[in-house]
């Protein structure tokens, strides 16, 4: 049987009523209200009344729960860390935007682009295997993407989706504080995606001479043609087999 104690033997400290067991000499009256041992009654702090005028100071003038959507399309893509970096940038700039990492198979790329249009995506990135295939589903290409025929970034401009390539732009921006690309002579080892993007952007930035060194003659000559469009007729481009 539980030992019962009187409410009259309780100790009240700072809003709490802690029921303390009586001493051996105490007598419990069975007619009094009783409770069981070690029960604690905790009182809530009083509620503070907030006036409407005070509440309005902490609320945005216009409620907007819609987030702008951006994404990366690729396969495989689970190991791609772009989402972490981009969403950190959004928070830094105070943008209520989201960046989604979406697995898109090659056969589903058209549906993915249609979905991005329908849902009003602000843009999306493309990675393997979509950098070339996505071009046919877009409304236009930026200058560098047009030259290298590869897209890694799609931007919504009005109702159109425009393909861009930012790989080489990042390289050129990084070297500008130390070297003006205009008039420089450049040697590029390799003819893959990064080499293609950098060579085209260096050509657009005014490089006077580009030498491409590559093991595979076919890929090297393809990059040679990308760097030698009519708009860059003054640029000297050499291909060397390594």
Features:
242 residues; 6-stranded mixed sheet; 7 helices; 14 strands; 26% strand
Summarize the entry for a quick read.
With 242 residues, the protein is an alpha/beta fold.
- In what range is the share of β-strand residues? 25-35%
Mean pLDDT: 79
Largest sheet: 6 strands, mixed
The succession of helices and strands, N to C, reads EEEEEHEHEHEEHEEHEHEHE
Q: What is the SS-derived class?
A: alpha/beta
How are strands sequenced across the largest beta sheet? 7-6-8-10-11-9
Q: Helical proportion?
A: 25-40%
Helix-strand layout with pairing:
Elements: E1 4-6, E2 10-13, E3 16-19, E4 34-36, E5 40-42, H1 52-55, E6 68-74, H2 82-92, E7 97-103, H3 109-118, E8 123-126, E9 140-141, H4 143-148, E10 153-157, E11 160-164, H5 167-175, E12 185-189, H6 193-204, E13 209-214, H7 217-226, E14 236-241
Parallel strand pairs: 6-7, 6-8, 9-11, 12-13, 13-14
Antiparallel strand pairs: 1-4, 2-3, 3-5, 8-10, 10-11
Helix pairs in contact: 5-6
What does this structure look like?
With 242 residues, the protein is α/β, with parallel strands linked by helices. It has helices spanning 52-55, 82-92, 109-118, 143-148, 167-175, 193-204, 217-226, and strands spanning 4-6, 10-13, 16-19, 34-36, 40-42, 68-74, 97-103, 123-126, 140-141, 153-157, 160-164, 185-189, 209-214, 236-241. The strands form four sheets. A six-stranded mixed beta sheet has the order 7-6-8-10-11-9, sandwiched between helices. Strand 12 (185-189), helix 6 (193-204) and strand 13 (209-214) form a beta-alpha-beta unit. The longest helix is centred in the C-terminal third of the chain and has 12 residues, at 193-204. It starts with a strand and ends with a strand. Mean pLDDT is 79; it is low at 1-20, 22-31 and 33-42.
